[in-house]
Write a structure and sequence with these properties.
The structure holds two protein chains of two kinds. Chain A is of the alpha+beta class. Chain A has 19 helices and 17 strands. Chain A has a seven-stranded mixed sheet, sandwiched between helices. In chain A, strands 3-2-6-5-4 form a five-stranded antiparallel sheet, sandwiched between helices. In chain A, strands 9-8-12-11-10 form a five-stranded antiparallel sheet. Chain A is globular and about 60 Å long. Chain B has a single domain, classed as Rossmann fold (3-Layer(aba) Sandwich). The chains are: A alpha+beta, B alpha/beta. Strand 10 of chain A pairs antiparallel with strand 2 of chain B. The structure holds guanosine-5'-triphosphate and magnesium ion. The site of magnesium ion (MG) has 5 residues of chain B, from helix 1.
């Protein structure tokens, strides 16, 4: 049973009855809007669905990468932008010296008739526009040649008339397609997600591929050989895609297009930031310094003029979370951040702060020769953090189990997510019963997805939604400054729900500076 | 004490055991849970050989194909290369030949080349004959070693050989990328306090198959 209470807006907004409202002017709850945010503010489904969004920051210059280099009056060195021309130039035909393995047609039925395979809730397939298998979430893509052939035929049949296939709806199953230049992605799911939501997810997967190859390389490969077997170049990157899909299924961050910050006392965070800035400020061409821990952002410092898009930050978090090898030694690796510049690689110095501190520092630059200066800077940073006992502060924040909703004194609310739109950050309490189990957490996230979809429905977006279900009552509220999603007891009354929302907002407001990064430090 | 600083790059296909070798040598351990290298990992170590201290900057590169085009960044100015393959996978040996061609094309300064056949503990699955690998190593002016990172066989010899090779390079005026200095002018005080690592003596130990090559190297310096 769902009711859309547009008339309730008044109570929530408090615009029309300022003063009369028992809680006073609710507009005070709007988050502090920083002059500038380190992350690009996101609205949901922003630009994700369009090909090559006309991002204003991209219009000024051709390439962000080139501009960072110009920043210090360096001449743009094309070599640095294009990995393939740096030193040994290798053509694609050389890359594919190994003859392409003949694919195994036997056993396809074995896979597709397999009960376990068939009962998977969500399949994701990636194939080239020539129909070559690239990736399958479940089951080996080798074994699915016929299936990939069917998908390719379907897409090209509809494409013949100049149309683009987006989705197929059958009873209980949804098929969503995303065509991105030379590759296509398809999702077959029995979840209750919407086409728009699945499309966002496929876009994340696509951006993961661009992140390891660059758009330039991807395009050129298929220009040179339409039949190229991309699995050769993606070998080892499947785990990044797997990991990304798991994150999409289990974490609200990607749904919200926002990141969670490691809660820290503001002065502590500032001290950490200042140490990083002072240790790096002589280094030219350093674009971003990012400190992450436990899948949360500790701090982010950027070159003036440049911003990090949360989608790019998610790619960075995904890389860190799925690469154990960073723990063993300092690494120096190329990474493409598609929202920053899909055309080329940035170089990342990646290292954990110390054996006794599991926070990972990433220093991103456009300059391939910067490893040693960055390595030195990292050492300085760690020494200074240690001397100021800040490693300890980070450790205790990382060890903190998180705040349960019970500590907020809002007994009606079981869980909530609060997203600050201007800073693209969100916060939520640790899941408590009934959501502490994997099953419970999944149901909660499903509920948030439904709310999220309804609030952001492309045709008819809503400001407020109140959904009463047998398991819980869900409330979603979108204002100019924030988005709030709350799960209540199923039998909560509307008045109690409103009071609870007010309490939550007051609590967030009080702790805003510790829960969110509200400044936007630069080098 | 004379100190030489050189760069050594570890190349080879995905999964042949490059990181396992480096971690075995530097960390003195083997882990079954080493995960694939991303980009390249950087390590340093020091070896004392007679009156010379060799500081090695080790670049352990990722074997995944997608990092292939980044390789020049890692092998540029290298003084030695460890070309690692897996003796149970013939194609990893074939891949070395492309690496060698690429190095010959792109690195101008002389380089110490060590061809390393790893995973000798899996000798019953051997696909690359020792003789073939040995001949290939000779043909490129390198030395062939066989190792097992798992059982700690032959690893020290590989690094020692590269260090000794670098000392020889440093005596060659052609080589400009090696940093050579007398520790009396630039040394840090800690360098003096460190006990001399017993690495030279390790050569005397009989480490089986690679000993032939080992002795030859020592004999010529
Ligand atoms: N049996 C055996 N296994 C080994 C040996 N050395 C490494 N391995 C195993 O081979 C696998 C790959 O080892 P890594 O050291 O990660 O290989 P790598 O060459 O660094 O791989 P990339 O970083 O992906 O290029 C791991 O499972 C190791 O445990 C060895 O000497 N014997
Ligand atoms: Mg490795």
């Amino acid at each position: 049973m769902a009711t859309t209470k547009t008339d309730e807006d008044v109570d929530f907004k408090g615009e029309n009855d300022e003063g009369k409202h028992p809680e006073g002017n609710l507009l005070n709850f709007e988050p502090e809007v920083p002059v500038e945010s380190m992350l690009v503010p996101t609205d949901n489904f922003d630009s994700f669905e369009q090909e090559a969004p006309p991002d204003p920051s991209n219009l000024k210059v051709d390439s962000n990468l080139a501009e960072c280099q110009n920043n210090d009056n360096n001449t743009v060195d094309d070599d640095k932008l294009d990995p393939d021309t740096s030193g040994a130039s290798r053509s694609i035909s050389e890359l594919s010296l190994a003859s392409e393995e003949s694919t195994d047609h036997h056993g396809e039925e074995e896979v597709t008739n397999n009960e376990e395979w068939r009962s998977q809730e969500k399949h994701v397939f990636i194939l080239s526009s020539a129909g070559k298998p690239i990736y399958s979430r479940h089951g080996s893509e080798d074994k699915l040649v016929t299936l990939f052939g069917v998908m390719q035929a379907l897409v090209s049949f509809i494409g013949d008339d100049g149309d683009v296939i987006r989705s197929i709806h059958t009873q209980g199953t949804l098929f969503v397609f995303l065509i991105k230049g030379p590759i296509m992605l398809a999702c077959v799911c029995k979840t209750r997600e919407s086409v728009a939501q699945i499309t966002v997810q496929l876009n994340y997967v696509y951006s993961q591929i661009v992140s390891v190859l660059t758009l330039q390389q991807l395009t050129r490969i298929y220009e040179q050989r339409r039949n190229y077997d991309l699995r050769r170049l993606l070998a080892g990157a499947e785990r990044l895609i797997d990991h990304m899909l798991i994150a999409l299924e289990t974490q609200p961050a990607l749904l919200l297009g926002a990141v969670q910050c490691l809660p820290l006392v503001p002065t502590t965070r500032d001290a950490i930031t200042n140490i990083i800035v002072s240790s790096c400020n002589k280094i030219k061409n350093l674009v971003f310094a990012i400190l992450v821990g436990g899948n949360q952002l500790v701090t982010l410092i950027r070159m003036k003029k440049f911003f990090l898009h949360p989608a790019d930050l998610h790619l960075i978090l995904n890389l860190v979370n799925s690469s154990e090898s960073f723990k063993a030694a300092e690494s120096w690796t190329p990474i493409c951040l598609p929202k920053f510049d899909p055309k080329g690689f940035l170089h990342a110095h990646v290292s954990y702060l110390a054996e006794d501190c599991e926070a990972c520092l990433l220093l991103l630059t456009v300059d391939a020769d910067l490893f040693f200066p960055l390595s030195e800077a990292k050492q300085k940073i760690v020494e200074k953090l240690r001397r100021a006992s800040l490693l300890q502060s980070i450790n205790s924040a990382l060890a903190h189990p998180g705040t349960p909703v019970s500590q907020l004194g809002v007994p009606e609310a079981r869980h909530f997510l609060y997203k600050c739109k201007a800073t693209a950050q969100f916060w939520g309490p640790v899941p408590a019963p009934p959501y502490q189990t994997a099953e419970g957490a999944k149901r909660l996230l499903d509920q948030y997805r439904i709310l999220h979809h309804r609030l952001h429905a492309p045709m008819q977006p809503l400001k407020l939604l109140y959904l009463q279900d047998h398991a819980e009552t869900m409330l979603g509220w979108v204002t100019t400054g924030f988005e709030l999603y709350v799960a209540f007891e199923p039998l909560v009354t509307k008045t109690n729900a409103i009071n609870a929302v007010n309490k939550i907002l007051r609590w967030i407001k009080k702790d805003e500076n510790g829960l969110f990064i509200t400044n936007a430090p630069t080098f | 004490m004379r100190t030489i600083e050189g760069k050594i790059v570890v190349l080879g296909s995905q999964g042949v055991g490059k990181t396992s070798m480096v971690v075995r040598y530097i960390g003195k351990m083997f882990s079954h849970h080493i995960s694939p290298t991303i980009g390249a990992s950087f390590f340093t170590c020091k070896i004392n050989i007679d009156e010379t201290r060799v500081k090695l900057q080790v670049w352990d590169t990722a074997g995944q194909e997608r990092f292939r085009s980044m390789a020049p960044m890692y092998y540029r100015n290298a003084n030695a290369a460890l070309l690692v393959f897996d003796i149970t996978q013939y194609h990893t040996f074939t891949a070395i030949k492309n690496w060698v061609k690429e190095l010959q094309r792109n690195v101008e300064e002389p380089m110490v080349l060590a061809l390393v056949g790893n995973k000798t503990d899996l000798v019953n699955q051997r696909k690359v004959l020792r003789e073939e690998a040995h001949q290939y190593a000779v043909s490129i002016g390198g030395t062939y070693f066989e190792t097992s990172a798992l059982q700690d066989e032959g690893i020290e010899e590989v690094f020692l050989n590269s260090a000794i090779g670098m000392i020889k390079l440093s005596e060659d005026s052609q080589c400009t990328s090696l940093r050579v200095y007398d520790s009396s002018d630039t040394s840090s005080p800690t360098a003096i306090l460190q006990p001399p690592p017993p690495l030279t003596s390790a050569v005397q130990l009989d480490k089986g198959p690679t000993q032939g090559e080992q002795e030859r190297v020592l004999a010529c310096c």
